[in-house]
Amino acid sequence: MRRPAVIPTLRLHCQREAAISLLRVLSLGTSTPKDAARIIILDPVLLFELLLTSPLGEAEGHKLLDAIALRIDNTSQALLQAWALRHIIHQPQRRTSEHSHRHHCLHSQFVAELAGHLARETAYAAPDEAYATGLLHDLGLLWMSEYADDYASLLADSPDEWTLSGNEWERYGQDHTEISSALLASCGLPPVATDAIALHHANVDTLVTAHPLVRIAAAAEELANYRSSQSADCLERAGRLTGLEGALLVSLLADTSREVQERALAAGIPAEPAMLSLPWSNQADTVTETGSIDGGVARSALNAFTRSVFTRDLSAWSDFNTASRLLLGLDAPVLFIRPLDGQTLSGTTSTALPGVSQLHIAVEDAHSVIAEAYRSGVETRFQSADRPPGRCAADWQLARWLECDGLLCVPWENEHQSGIAVYPCAADEHTGEEIDQALRKLVTDAATTRISAKQADERMRVDLEESVARRYIDHARRIAHEASNPLTVIKTYLGIIDEKLEDSTLKEQLNLLSDELDRVATLIRKTSDFTGMVPAGPAHSGVAEILHDLRALYGEALFARRGINFELRTSPNLPPAAIPPDALKQILLNLFKNAAEAIPEGGKLSVSAVSGINTNGHACLEIRIVDNGPGLSPERVQTLFTGGARNSTKPGGGVGLPVVRELVTRNNGTILCRSQPGSGTVFQIFMPLAARP
C-alpha cells in the first residue's frame, strides 16, 4: 500500500453519539465554548480534525481544553453545527462498523485518561499533553481500518499490538503508529508527543531511557492491556516505566475504568467494559447498527448550516479553509478563475504557492482535467501518471506543488466569476457517494460566491475612490488656475505702483507683499499637484529675518490698526532652524492672525526667539508668542490642536491650529500652549537647529 505525501483522511469518522452530543450542545443558546470543547476532547477524530484546521501553538498542549475552546470560539457556529451533522449522517463507503469504531474510540479515551493520571502521579509538567497523546495514539489504527485492504482479517489474526505492528509492516510496509505520528505532526503536537505515539509499544528495556512522555504513553497502554489480560507482566512493565508501585497502579486503573464508562454512558455511548482495551481482538460485530438518519431533513439541515457559514463579514478565505477540512475532509483548494471575457483559467495568487498565479490553462485544453471540469460542469479527478507529466503539465505541476498524487476538480460559477476549485486528494481516495459530491459542490459554490462578492465590493470601492480622487484633482486644478489669474494681475499692479513710488520704506513693503503673493501662488500650485503641504525650497530658515519681514508686512494690518502693540525681541545672530521658510511663515502667520483676533484693543503681543535650548537631547531654537488677551479655559487648551478647535470666539478663529501643529511636527519640532482665563496665552515653538554645512 503506497501512502501519498498528503495522507487522505476523508473516511475518518467520529463516534456518532459524540457528534450528536456536540450538535446538541452547539444548538443550546446557553452553552459555552468549553461545553463543546469537553465533548471534542473525548473523541480522537473530532480532536484531530479541529487541530488539523488550526494546529496547536507552542505550549498550547499544556492547556488542551482552553486551546480547543479558543478554536470553538473563533469558528462559525453554523460551521461547527454542520461539522457535527456531517458525522451523524451515515456514509456507506466506510469500512468500519459503528460497534468496532466505538471500541477503538473508547479504548483511546481510556488510554488518554490513564496517561493523564500517570502524568500527574509522576509530576510530569504537562498532563494535558499526555492526555492528547493517549487519545490520539491509535488514530493510525482507525486510519488503517478504513484505508488498508483486508485489515479486518489482519486484526483478527493479531492477539496483541506488538504482533499487529509486525503484521502491518510485513503486509503494508508501514504500521499504524507511523501513520498516527505523521497525522499528528500536522496538528501541532510537539515532536516528543509524536515520538511517544511512535514508540508506545516498543520494548520496555529500550524505553526506560526515553523522554518521560514516551514512558507515560507506553505505561498507559500496558495498564489498558492489564485490565483485560490481568497479566502480571503488563503491570510490572507499567511500574518500571513510571516508577509507581503496583498497588497504586491497580487503584488508578479501577478509578479510571469507572470514570470513562460513566462519562460514556452520560453521553449516550453504550460502553461495554471490554471496549476499554484490546480493540483489535474483538472484531465480531454482533451488535446491531443504529439506524441511519441520512434523510432529506438531515441533508437539508446540513445544507442550511453550510450556506450560513459564508454569510458572515469575516474572512471568506479563512472560512473556506476551515470548512474544507471540517465538512469535506480535504485541505483547502486552489482556485482557478476564468475572466468574463477570457478563454483561459488562471490560478489565483497564493502565499503558500506563489507559482500558481502563473499557471494559465486554456478552457478548450483537451488534455487538462481542470479544463475538462470547467467545460462539463461536472466534478473530475486527476491522477499522476507513473511517468510524469502525463496528459497536461499544468495539472501534474499543481499536484506536485500540493504534495499529492491526485486532484479533485469542482466547478463553480456565480454572477461575478466562474472557475474551478482544485482540492488536493489522494488518487486512491474514495470520495464518497452523491451526498459527499453535493456537499463539496455546495461548500465550493457558497465560498466562491462570498469571495467573488467581496472582491467585487473591493473593486467597486477602489473605482469609487479613484473616481473621487480624479474629480478632486480636476477641481483643485481648476481652482488653482482661476486663482492664479487675479494673483498675476495684483502682482502686475504692484509692479506698476512700485515704479511710481519714491518712498523707500513703502517700496520695501511692496516687495515683501510681492514675495507673499509668490508664496501663496506656490502653495496653490503645489496643492493642485498633490505633492505635499509644504512647497519645495530651502530646508532651513533664518528665523530673525522671517519675523522682521512678517512684522513689516502684517504689523500695521493685523495689530496697529486694532490698537495692539506688537513687540519683537530677537537677535540677528540666531542660528538657522531646520524648517523650510514657507512652512515657518505659514506657522507664524496663523498664530499672529489668531492672536490679533483674540487680543482686545490696547493689548499687547510679544514675540521672541532665542537659541541654546536643549529639547530631548537636541539643540533647538525657541520662538515664544505671548499675548495678554482673555486667555483660554483648560478644556479649550486640551483640544486646541484638534480639528475644528478654535482659540477665538470670532467666526473662523483658531481653525489653522491643527495645520500649525502638523507643520511643526512634520519638521521634528514641538509646539506647546499655556493659558488661563484672564491671564493671556503663551505659545512656545521648539525647532531643531539646521545642520551645519
What does the secondary structure layout of this molecule look like, with pairings?
Elements: H1 16-27, H2 33-40, H3 44-53, H4 64-73, H5 77-88, H6 98-121, H7 127-136, H8 139-147, H9 151-156, H10 161-172, H11 176-185, H12 191-199, H13 204-207, H14 212-229, H15 232-242, H16 246-266, H17 296-309, H18 316-328, E1 334-338, E2 344-347, E3 360-362, H19 369-376, E4 380-383, H20 393-401, E5 406-413, E6 418-424, H21 434-500, H22 504-529, H23 543-559, E7 565-569, H24 581-598, E8 604-615, E9 618-627, H25 634-638, H26 657-666, E10 670-675, E11 681-688
Parallel strand pairs: 7-8
Antiparallel strand pairs: 1-2, 1-6, 2-3, 4-5, 5-6, 8-9, 9-11, 10-11
Helix pairs in contact: 1-2, 1-5, 2-4, 3-18, 5-17, 6-7, 6-14, 6-16, 7-12, 7-14, 8-11, 11-12, 12-14, 14-15, 17-21, 18-21, 21-22, 23-24, 24-26
Domain Histidine kinase: 478-691
Domain HDOD: 12-203
Catalytic activity: ATP + protein L-histidine = ADP + protein N-phospho-L-histidine
